[in-house]
């Protein structure tokens, strides 16, 4: 697993996963409109950051209201 705090290692890992050099990977990402993390990476980060999937709409609205009131 690559340390996501090291952007160079992350780029090398992504390029290697696609069988590309880092330069070729960056050029292809630029042509595609920018880098997009693989779905597995996104899901891993979401699970790691402790977010809940069972948040209700009412809870979200309450959080937004609290944020607005604190300004």
From TrEMBL:
Domain of life: Bacteria
Name of the molecule in the record: Uncharacterized protein
